[in-house]
Amino acid sequence: GFGVGIGTKLFVAMFGVLPEIETSSAPLLLVGAALLISPATFMVLFGARPRAFFWIFAASALTYVCARMGAATMGPELGAFLGSFALGVASNGLARWRRHPTSLTLVPGLIMLVPGSLGFQSLSALLSHNVVSGMEAAFFMLMVAVSIVTGLLMANAAISPRKAL
Prior knowledge:
The chain is mainly α and 165 residues long. It has helices at 2-15, 28-46, 53-74, 76-98, 103-113, 116-127, 131-158.
């Protein structure tokens, strides 16, 4: 938050007004490349073994696809719920079947769902003295986070891992 505030103030001091940037959805080719690269970065980040790449990739792809399909049909909050529910069920089932920690696939999949950009938008709006827009983004981020947690709780009720780790 501090870095965003300092960067904004420096930019305005040097160049004047902040430019308006329109967002658009990423092309399918870029999304596919990101879905291939992300599991490799998660493996490095979490110190996973190379043989876990397929499972991390599958969990990340399942989460992304379910969240996007859910968001397209039921809205972003329910899309996050559907993505986390599918991830939780798949991770718990895989942990029971392969006898490895649930977190091997659960944590990388959750990173695909975390609404960090919404927090950034909220903070940026608040720093620009646009309180209403900032609070709307913060509330939306909170609703998405609650949807993720609810999906994981429902997944643990549907199928629990063999043991708690």
